[in-house]
Amino acid sequence: MSARVTAVSSNGTYSFSKPNRASITLLTGLGVEGDVHAGETVKHRFRMKHEPQQPNLRQVHLIHEELFDELAEKGFSVAAGELGENISTRGIDLLALPTGALLHIGAEAIVEVTGLRNPCSQIDSFQKGLLKEVFELDPDTGDFTFKSGVMSVVRQGGVVRPGDPIKVELPTGPHRPLERV
Q1: Is the pLDDT of residue 73 over 70?
Q2: What InterPro entries does the database record attribute to this sequence (predicted)?
């Protein structure tokens, strides 16, 4: 199966979930047009209070629908946009990408992966017990794997629609694993 977009979502106001759209427009250096998280500087409410001038490394949130399948096996019902992502995908291991990977989406858009989404307690408000399911503890190292998608910045704008293909361009040199952003 080739990597593709399965859904696109945005919201102009702060809320946990984002409604699905027929398309979204990515704006270079800003994020999703009309989305509350778009901008050059951080737009996460908590971070705006403490670090308002920090660059916005969370312009576009992507999540793999395979996570929804995994959660369904555990009794949870999660659909595209409900965890606040802008782009839902299938056929690409987002969590295995290195920092700086470029995702060419559709005909024009390019996003650069900046890191892992740091899941917050609002996930449990959405569905009780869900937060512990989007973390995975490595029993050997004690390290956590954050499974709730990746964050990115827009390097080249364009329209993104469900069904659009996604091509991965890996960075040159040694690859750095994703960290929380």
Answers
A1: yes
A2: MoCF_Sase_C, MOSC_domain, Pyrv_Knase-like_insert_dom_sf
